[in-house]
Amino acid sequence: MRWWQIKKRDADLERELRSDLELEEEEQREGGVSGEEARYAALRAFGNPTLIRDQTHAVWSWSWIESLARDLRFSLRTLRRTPGFTIIAILVMALGIGANVALFTVVRGVLLKPLPFHDPDRLVMLYEAGALGDDTTDTNVVSGGMYAEWKKENRSYSSLALAQDIRVGLSGSNGQLPEKLKSALFSWDMLRTLGVQPALGRDFTQADDSPTANGTVLLSWGLWKRRFGGDPAILNQTIELDAAPYTVIGVMPAWFDFPDPSTQLWTPVYHDKPEATMTSLNNHMFRVVGRLKPGVSAAQGVADLSLISQRTHNAHLDDPFVFRGASSRPLLEHLVGEIKKPLYVLLEATCCLLLIACLNVANLLVARAAARRKELAIRTALGGGWLRLMSERMMECLMLSAAGGVLGLLLAFATLHWLSQARHDMSRVDSIHIDGVVAAFTVGVIMLCALFSGLIAAFSNSDRHILGALHEASRSVGGGNARATLRKVLLMLEVGLTVILLVGAGLLLKSYERLRSADMGCITQGVITMHLGLPDARYATPAQRANFYDTLLERVRALPGVDAAGFATLVPGQGYEVDSTFNIVEHPPLPQGRGLYALSRSADPKYFGAMGIPILRGRTFDGKRLATANEVIISQSFASQYFPGEDSLGKHLHVHGQNAVIVGIVGDTRYAIGETPRPVQYFSLDAGVENVGTLVIRSSHDPEQFALPVQRIVSEMDRDLPVSDVLTMNQLLGKSTQDQSFNTTLLVAFGSLSLVLAAVGLFGVMSYIGAQRTTEIGIRIALGAQREQVMRKMLLDGMRPAVFGLVVGLTASLAAGRLMRDLLYQIKPLDPAVFAAVAATLLAVAVFACIVPAWRASRLDPMKALRAE
Amino acid sequence: MAKRAQQRVGLLQGTLDMLILRTLLHGPAHGHQIGKHIQRTTNEFLQMQHGSLYPALHRLEERGWVVSKWETAPDRNREFKYYRLTDKGRKQLLVEESQWKQMAEAVARVMWPVPEEA
């Protein structure tokens, strides 16, 4: 019977009853009973029609929907009767499901959803490769000259476009302060290559992308809203970038975040970059995106470009920095590469957590089923079908999972909201949404959980030895042995999974600590850093720039409380960024096309002192402006790598077409946290070639107090010059460990959660075992067993699965740790301290979870226990 | 599941089904007629409870032992819901009949034992 037919059937039944009742009435009348009397007599003979209808409905209700509804009502009643159990089970499910849904949403949004570009599978990120034969140069950024060669000669790509991240100063107007913004230079065909249109206005044209064209700019949606009030009249207005005029020609859609999420402006590259840069073969600075022609594979494309590179390399053997090959990665992989691995580790962790949650609910259900064994046995004896009992159990699990799922979805919602706030720097964070697919996934997870925990629970009491059960139950000798074993196995699995999670969390935590305490080779306490960039338009000559730095440093050092101040293009922790090739003049010449290379920075003479980078030998720059252009200071590892067993002081490096004498050797620093120090060459800032850099101020008092005074000095020197990234050294390093700290936080959260769940599991099961063995323990005590003995036995019983689980978990962690190797810094996946700490924590929790029920059991009053029977 | 539940519910219900099926052997009839027929035939010994008659009829229909149809009664100018025995119903009647016979004999043997032969 289908439910939608019931209404029709009901009308039919009513008609049937009415017609038969009327007949009865007629017959009564024919039998001589008069009017009203006949009616009542008929009704009497007939019985209550409503009751008949109800009873007939009962016949129809052998339909699945009604029987489900009945199971539902029954399980609701059962669950309501044991609110403690229900609440714990729902919370456990909510945590498991919530975490899973949240992470699935992230993984889907970031890794699985296609890029919002046209035909995104054909988009690749292109690199130069193979110049120096080490892994950092296999995916190197591309030089303008090589890009030009590729673009001209290749047959594999329907278009090649180029981009570079820069920072620009947006001048204030109408009382707004100037602002430093992350910006990108695009070749005019970048948006066409991606297959994206501006939301407002127009795309760049080839005419915009030339040095002689007027400046044009595309705004990001966010900047347009924030800075220009979302006014469409912004189109065709002029704004000032680095003190030069640019006309706003369009606004990009809100979701557009290429090349990275914090980009706020796009300008044409050939308009901004000098021609020399765009044709240079050894100045590598651009990201190149290619769109493969239909039918051309990524490998074919790379082979094509490599041929061009090799040819170009051979034609410029005098220049060691012309790369020999090309490589590519799918654009999606390039954008999410960093986040992929940690996401998968986290996803595994959440699956672990969900499994723990399911095991826990199953365990609680099994334990409760054991307590309800007598009831179930009686029902079976009265003819309660096995299937019926099983479907009730499943319904119960479904209710718990569904309630948990709904709560979990709310939890996931909150988590994702938090995540998108906390990790706005993460690639594609905007594509993370709870949508239909996620909702379907949630329903799937709920069903799976119900099925999993339900089946375990259902099979645990599927044995049909009714009499045996009744017999046994009447004597209260613990619920069947098989069931107790199942419970212990479940518990063991749960503990094992928890151990895996805890070990993972522990490893990450320790690795993070190592990372944060890694020696950067400089002072990190009491130092504040600020970013400055001098626009070419106003600081065209080296003398102008050097003059600006001099004046600025002089005024900053005069501020009360400043212990030292310095300026460098890049400070430790700000990344690899710039390197350059050199030859050592005193050494025999290298074969053609070969060169040495090292990181390259410019600094003022007092920078080393301000950052606490020790001068090991020689001296710092002598501070005579422009005279120091041919001096270089090298780092310790530079000396040991390129001058092994000889004195490097006084030797000459041939760099950028001129010779520089080595005047000093300084201590090693790390260009990023977690990286090993590499050779660095420092040139004098006084040469004035650099137009961007970082001001560092050291103070024994709170260094953050200098943020405002320095900004004031800068704006007094140049009203339109913004200061950006005002960060203490600790914040700066914190930024570069953000991924690790984020992953660690999450995994520690999962670990603690699972520990709580495992404790709940242990506690719950121990309590049930205790409750069930009340009589047995009563008898033991009555027969003279020592309470300590009882307690010890209970404790051992509970601890055994925990210890087994611990062993299993630790073993499995050895395998799981291998997965995490890439996420770890300076520790091995098998870290004895972490393993020991996890084991100790888990044992402590297990003892606590077991000792309370055991203690309760040992306090039993034997008389009371026996009388309860 | 259904079968087991039914065996359990008791003697009367099973019996009622059998009585209805037997009644319908004479030909199609509507609910009232069936009830009256059973009452009359047993000399009013079995007072027909409509509360169980209609559910029973619908149950038999669910199982495909009877089919129903609205038809105008020949003696009255009105439509009634007529039930008719199906082939499946006929077979079921045979089964129930033999079961009933066995049951009655078994009960009788206990209640009125035949004296053991010497």
TrEMBL record, chain A:
GO MF: transmembrane transporter activity
Keyword match Phosphoprotein: no
Organism, as annotated: Tunturiibacter gelidiferens
Domain ABC3 transporter permease C-terminal per the UniProt entry, residue ranges: 351-458, 749-862
One Pfam family hit: MacB_PCD
Family from the record: Belongs to the ABC-4 integral membrane protein family.
Localization in the cell: Cell membrane
UniProt keyword annotation of Lipid metabolism present: no
Gene Ontology CC: one annotated term: plasma membrane
Main location: membrane
Domain (MacB-like periplasmic core) ranges: 86-305, 497-670
Residues annotated as transmembrane: 85-107, 343-366, 397-419, 439-459, 489-509, 746-771, 801-820, 832-855
Keyword annotations from UniProtKB, A to Z: Cell membrane, Membrane, Transmembrane, Transmembrane helix
UniProt-recorded name of the protein: ABC transporter permease
Membrane topology: Multi-pass membrane protein
Source organism, top-level taxon: Bacteria
UniProtKB/TrEMBL annotation, chain B:
Residues of the Transcription regulator PadR N-terminal domain: 20-93
Listed InterPro entries: Metal_resp_DNA-bind_regulator, Tscrpt_reg_PadR_acidobac-type, Tscrpt_reg_PadR_N, WH-like_DNA-bd_sf, WH_DNA-bd_sf
Listed Gene3D superfamilies: Winged helix-like DNA-binding domain superfamily/Winged helix DNA-binding domain
One Pfam assignment: PadR
Domain of life: Bacteria
Name by which UniProt lists this protein: Transcriptional regulator
